[in-house]
Amino acid sequence: ETGVTQTPRHLVMGMTNKKSLKCEQHLGHNAMYWYKQSAKKPLELMFVYNFKEQTENNSVPSRFSPECPNSSHLFLHLHTLQPEDSALYLCASSQEGPGGSYHEQYFGPGTRLTVT
Amino acid sequence: QQQVKQSPQSLIVQKGGISIINCAYENTAFDYFPWYQQFPGKGPALLIAIRPDVSEKKEGRFTISFNKSAKQFSLHIMDSQPGDSATYFCAASIRAAGNKLTFGGGTRVLVKP
Fold it and tell me: Does the beta carbon of B37 lie under 8 angstroms from any beta carbon of chain A?
């Protein structure tokens, strides 16, 4: 596997279900991100992890719960979602250094989530 | 303050033509402006990026023009090809605040053969 992989690619879940999205990066990066891509909104940053520590939670509802067990894996745990949470969820990674940087973010193909 | 506005939402251009996508921002602290290209079923991929100390950057058929005083930047795709048909996103970030990208709404480009 190369780059950033995401599983599953498609997920349909009811509002009472609990599911998890998985992201794995094979690039040796130290930062990972979750983004939400909806049809009618710009790509929205949800969470940022640097060196496995969460450094950003962009006012995301608690029904979305991220987990970063190591620098290569990132999960997004989902529970009691709403139909408006249906979207493409994208994971990305980058190599960050001290003092800020312009490092490229590499995106996975996304998980298409439908909440019924 | 963090918003990046992108236009047009969609664009149809003939093969060999020029595609032009514009973005405007409000936050003068932004100091990194990348453009991403996304094909159906794929995640966005970095196409080209510019910093505000440069007014233009060219890579192959893709050129970014940057106007700091107007707080605008644009992507020009020269000699557009059917393979360029994709959705293009502009973005902006503040280097000192970490690599947190604020994206524009996207432009769907269709290049007709």
Answer: no
Assess contact for A110 and A6: CB atoms under 8 A: yes
Which residues share a beta bridge with B13? Answer: B111
Peptide bond preceding B113 in cis form (omega within 30 of 0): no
| Region label for B97, one of left (φ > 0), alpha (ψ between -120 and 50) or beta (otherwise) | alpha
| Contact criterion met (CB < 8 Å) for A92 and B43 | yes
Could you report the per-residue pLDDT of A13-51, keeping only the tens digit for each?
998 889 999 999 999 999 999 999 998 788 999 999 887
Q: How far is C-alpha B85 from the geometric centre of its chain's CA atoms? A: 14
Q: Count contacts between A and B (CB, < 8 Å).
A: 62
CB proximity B70 to A under 8 Å: no
Separation in Å, CA of A1 to nearest CA in chain B = 16
